[in-house]
Amino acid sequence: MRRDLKGLYVVTAALTASPGFAQEQTAEAIGAGMGLVIGLGIAIVIGAIVGWLASMIVKGSGSGLLKDVLIGIGGSILASFVFPALGLTFGGNTIAAILSPLLGAIILLLIIKLIRR
């Protein structure tokens, strides 16, 4: 038997000897991938809503879908790092979960406006 095929044979024999382990590893990998995709989708949708609201408050009109999504996600990231560092907390309810990223997106839009001037 060739040397490279021998290693493949050993791995295949080990996996078939414990099929539950291989199936469990595959299921975990697929589940982790799906969780990432779902989380990314939720972040985009929430980012679009928050970015659109922030654009409506600061400019009076939306900035376009892509820009609203980026502003909303950027505002959420800004809020999650900067507000706790400053000691600002909004609680753990649903309104606070929307208010914090919204304030972060508004601050981000104001910073962008200052830089563009």
Q: Can you describe this structure?
A:
Keywords: Cell membrane, Membrane, Signal, Transmembrane, Transmembrane helix. By secondary structure, the chain is mostly helical. It has one domain. The chain has 4 helices and no strands.
Task: Determine the N-to-C terminus distance.
Answer: 72 Å
User: How many individual domains?
Assistant: 1
Number of strands: 0
Please tell me how large the radius of gyration is.
23 Å
Shape by Cα distribution: globular
Number of DSSP helical runs: 4
Category from helices, strands and their pairing: mainly alpha
Largest sheet, described in full? none
Overall mean pLDDT stands at 75
Order of helices and strands: HHHH
Residue share in helix: over 70%
Flag low-confidence runs.
none
Q: What fraction strand?
A: under 5%
Describe the structure concisely for a colleague:
Keywords: Cell membrane, Membrane, Signal, Transmembrane, Transmembrane helix. Belongs to the UPF0410 family. The protein has 117 residues and is an all-alpha fold.
Any key phrases for this structure?
mainly alpha, 117 residues
Question: Could you give the topology of this structure?
Answer:
Elements: H1 3-17, H2 19-58, H3 65-86, H4 94-116
Helix pairs in contact: 2-3, 2-4, 3-4
